[in-house]
């Protein structure tokens, strides 16, 4: 008859295998669901009206502008604009280049920004 140590080791090994299998099946199911979602059902992140204004402004300015000019022209406080630009940059939509004493804000993915603006306009029409 096997000793208690061996039985405990076997039970622990069986538990590890069971948990690994359960995770593998769960993860495979999540990937399958994500891959099978049609592009028309993928939701874009939500953006505030001010963030949408900043993106529209940049589109009108050929994709780049001084951060100070954006704030002045759109009447957005410096701190609020800085947070907005940082959030949009984290989402991969904008980049900030420091040139001397000035920050230039650039659109990094023009097509995606245009899609966001179009979808926000469509949502406003529906409401």
Automatic annotation (TrEMBL):
The keyword DNA damage does not apply. InterPro entries: ArsR-like_HTH (IPR011991), DUF7343 (IPR055767), WH-like_DNA-bd_sf (IPR036388), WH_DNA-bd_sf (IPR036390). The keyword Transmembrane applies. Residues 49-105 form the DUF7343 domain. It holds the Pfam family DUF7343. The chain crosses the membrane at residues 6-26. Keywords: Membrane, Transmembrane, Transmembrane helix. This is DUF7343 domain-containing protein. It comes from Thermocladium modestius. The lineage of its organism: Archaea, Thermoproteota, Thermoprotei, Thermoproteales, Thermoproteaceae.
């Amino acid at each position: 008859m096997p000793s208690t140590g061996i039985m405990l080791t076997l039970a622990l090994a069986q538990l590890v295998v069971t948990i690994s299998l359960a995770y593998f099946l769960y993860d495979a199911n999540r990937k399958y669901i994500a891959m099978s979602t049609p592009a028309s059902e993928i939701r874009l992140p939500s953006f505030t009206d001010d963030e949408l204004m900043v993106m529209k402004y940049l589109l009108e300015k050929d994709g780049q502008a001084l951060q100070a000019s954006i704030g002045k022209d759109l009447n957005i406080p410096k701190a609020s604009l800085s947070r907005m630009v940082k959030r949009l940059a984290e989402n991969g939509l904008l980049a900030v280049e420091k040139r001397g004493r000035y920050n230039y804000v650039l659109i990094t993915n023009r097509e995606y920004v245009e899609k966001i603006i179009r979808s926000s306009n469509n949502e406003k029409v529906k409401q």
